[in-house]
Amino acid sequence: MRINPTSQTLSLVLRAIETTIAPDLTNPTAIGAIELIKPALHDLLKRQGPSVPLLRKCIEEGEALNHEITQHLEGNKAGPKRPYSTLGNFDTLCEKYDQLTEELDELSTRLTKVASHDPKASSFIRKAAEWELNYYTTLQTIQPQPFNGESSHPDDSPNPPLTKGFFESFLRTKRNDTSLSVTSFTSNPGSFGKQTYFATVTHGSSDTEDLVIRKADPAPIMLHSSFLLSQEHDLLKAVSATGYPAPTPIDLAENLPGVDGTFFTMNKISGKLPGSFLGGHEAKIDEDVWLQLAEKLAQLHTIPLEKFEEVIKKYDEEGAMEDTVQSRYHRNLRGWRDYASRIEHLPSPFITYLFSWLERNVPADDRKPVLTHGDFNIHNVLFEDGKLTGVLDWECSDFGAPEQDLAYIQPHVSRHMPWEKFLDHYLKSGGQELNMQYMSFTLAYSVLRTMLGGVRATRNLQVGHNRDLRYIMVELGFTPAFMGMGLACTADKKENGAVEDASRRETEVEEKAAKANGNTELESTLEQDLKETNGVNGSHYVADRYRAPEDMLAKVSGGKTLQIYGDEVNVRQKPGPQENWQNSVVLVWWDDKNAVGGFHRLGHEPNLKDGGRVVMWNYLLSPKGMYKKMHHVPLRDADLLPSNGFGSGDDTCRCEVEDGEHIWTVEDEDISAKITCVDTGPNVDCYPKKGQINSFTSHHFDIPGIVHGSLKIKGEEYKIAGLAVRDAGWGPRNWGTVYSHRWIAGTCGKSLSIIAVSWHGIDESIATFGWVVRNGVITYAKKVKILAYMEEDAATNSGGRVTFTLTTGEVLDVECTPVPVKAMVSYHQNVCVVDRICNMTCGGLRGMCNFETSANIQMGTRRPTKFSNGIIDNGFFEDAKSV
């Protein structure tokens, strides 16, 4: 993890003094002291920046003056100008400056002795005085530079922080009570991870209510699991409903305009914290306090899992309710690794080591998981009159082994009482039977999650997304504490993990789809799976294949759902009445290991006035060259395949669907291929249902997948194993409504798939939208920025960059770099469409995508024939490599 620069720490201290401390001071002596501290800190900040070049310039000018005066006094004896250096930091330069100041003072003293008869002597003495003054006067004119442009960072939230007035307005609306007033509103400066406020609310003339407000930071340190505020709210609601002494959530304000983060209110529990996490080792805490913590841990771990079924089904993957402890930790580690690859963090060898160790040491534990608090210690419990009244801060909660909470609290307990006595009390209070061999793993797992939050918090400080002095403590306190715990609990441990082969295989298979596309963290055994797991058409891909939940609803970030459809939407549809009604299917795929891929589109247009037609775009890419065939030919009865599949009008291509597998067959002279695509994401229609784009995509499904099969091209045979995106759509399609568009569809496997679309309609409307799919969960983008890299012909693209600003607040940057083959250019209905297969990267993930752009060249009055890096004609092109 990168160390916080001095300039950053000074900037944060200054900001805290100016915005938090100084406004609340009333003591005249303290106010005077602060007014002296602020300029001193400003000067220290200057010394990290503009004061250094100023000092170098002063040394250069002083050396020149020193030599000039010496020559005047000593003539030829002075010799040449002496060598000097202006290298070094501020303190090193200060030593050189101090030495130079002393030498110029001695020379000035000598000059005073001859000044009465030497006219130049007085001039030199004044020059030396002006030289000394120059540093101080120039210093006053330069301004300290806040760390990383802190004073105006582009990621500053457009919304203000939570205020008393905003909160009162929200509460009046939420509770439909205009007589309500907020009489006090204060923030808690000591909380980490989230913001905490305390408010007193008066109802009518006398009734009062004390509330705690739990609010997300505008730059969150964690964007996963219960660290997401809405998920913490729902879990806390379920916990408090069991009678456990946790706060009860009351009012939820999710993504509310006018404030810089989601928040919810909860009842205020009376009591005080018995200690802090970092000070817990040294503080004097009675043994009875620890024994009460043991009792509450036992109570927590015995809450039936069914009490949280609604929360688990809302936020977890399918099958989570049936997990064992072992499979739960496999699931959780996959989720955290995926999160760490998607969301930018500072590099950390420690975290890399911990991931590796944990993945090799998951316990073979077939118990059912229990609810774990994740941060259960003296800094998150309240006591009043010697009794525990509340357990706070549930953002680290999850489901796992009971040993996890016990391992986390053990270092503190052992400083105050015998650990065996604590454990015995836990068991006598009804706690779970324990396996002490699991303690090291569960503690290391707790450390991993905490450190992921820590490196993200430090990263937010260093790039200027967060200016909160609290997070300096990540480096100064939490990092050494948790790193030490992590290395201690993983030292000299057997790393066989005792993991059964079947479970290990489950972990590996979920990561195998992207092997051919270079994901080092996703490498596994795709080829072996193809050999061993034969289905109707060769492979069901075990865990990679998307399995829809029983209710056929896909999760959407924020708690919503979308209908999941089956094969009924993948096959040929009954034609509608419109003349421009069409039904089409598309498959784009790439096998990076073999450098082969393809783009296949079959569309049936049955209602055209001159008779139905088939449009085919059929392109295959290989090291041998590009096979390209596009046509718009009459639709035959033979093209209406018995399986409700699609024919091509000439029998060179067909698409059929069997048992959820999409099978494409190509047969044309010395070109043949059979490609099977299996979905890795839910079959949902996420396209908007309004605006001009709806006249083009009224029913449209874009789904990530993986492909396997075979390809023979010009005598060369390839066994295919790669990534893919397919689409299916039907309804009226008016190609004349578009000036231009962008369609970027890509996948890195189950961890991440993307869709980004922009549409420039002839009604001068411009629409952009998109979404991502991660482990079956859909997250919409509230903003999509598509930058296409265009060749000099202004028609062919060379990939591009897509930036998603998601509804969760995350920002994903996706870079799309073309594979070394020219673009595929199709001309249909007077629109020139360019498709470019690209390698796609996002954070640590790598996959494939199709980067499609169109340009309605001269409104379809001519078909272009020449492109910088694309092929529009039919045939086989050996010179298809991009230039």
Descriptive report:
- The protein is α+β, with helices and mostly antiparallel strands.
- It is 30% helix and 29% strand.
- An eleven-stranded antiparallel sheet has the order 16-17-18-19-20-21-12-13-14-15-32.
- The chain starts with 5 loop residues before the first helix and ends in a 6-residue tail after the last strand.
- The longest helix has 25 residues, at 90-114.
- It has 17 helices and 32 strands.
- β28 (823-828) and β29 form a beta hairpin.
- The chain folds into five domains: 6-50 and 145-152, no CATH class; 51-141, no CATH class; 164-267, Phosphorylase Kinase, domain 1 (2-Layer Sandwich); 287-489, Aminoglycoside 3'-phosphotransferase, Chain: A, domain 2, CATH 3.90.1200.10; 553-870, AttH-like fold (Beta Barrel), CATH 2.40.370.
- α1 (6-21) packs antiparallel against α2 (28-47), α4 packs antiparallel against α5 (119-141) and α12 packs across α14 (439-462).
Number of domains as seen in the coordinates: 5
Strand content: 25-35%
Would you state the CATH class of the largest domain? Mainly Beta
The strands making up the biggest β-sheet line up spatially as 16-17-18-19-20-21-12-13-14-15-32
How many H/I helices? 17
The largest sheet is: 11 strands, antiparallel
Q: Report the CATH superfamily of the largest domain.
A: AttH-like domain
Helix content: 25-40%
CATH topology of the largest domain: AttH-like fold
Shape: globular
CATH architecture group name of the largest domain: Beta Barrel
- Average pLDDT for all residues: 84
GO molecular function: kinase activity
InterPro entries: ACAD10_11_N (IPR041726), AGP_Transferase (IPR051678), Aminoglycoside_PTrfase (IPR002575), DUF7064 (IPR055492), DUF7065 (IPR055493), Kinase-like_dom_sf (IPR011009)
Domain Aminoglycoside phosphotransferase: 189-431
Coiled coil: 90-117
